[in-house]
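Q&A log
Question type: sequence-to-structure
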Amino acid sequence: MGGRPAAQRADASWTTPVGATFSTIREGDSARFVVRISDEMVRQFVELTGDRTPVHTDPEFARETVFEGLIVHGMLENALFSRLVGMDLTGGNGFCISQQTRFLLPIRPNTEVTVQGRVRSKSEAMRTVTIETQVLNGDGQVAVEGSVVAMMLK
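Response status: OK
Response body:
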């Protein structure tokens, strides 16, 4: 990633650019990490948000829907971009100021997903970077896609 130093995290599935700044981030820089969206994560999301929609929480109800089973909240999937943008691509020096997301395929609880992003462009005037984002399901298919505009703190 552009020759910047990286600190390996304990989970060994991603590296973070240490002290990334607007001047060191380059178009084409990318990052990815793998995470299992567990039943516990879904339960915590329900507790945090109060979203108890039955397609996410009631197996009997969910079996009778077009999804034929429980699916993960789209906003939980979307929340994974916070780590990607705030830590993995900006090393803690960037934050999301706008986001666009499309949910293409459902993700089931206890699925291992890949969250990835690539810097598409930079705006010198605003000190922002635009990042293309994706969540790939367990089969490597794009389940969520979109973009984030992140403002750099340094």
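Response note: The longest helix spans residues 74-88.
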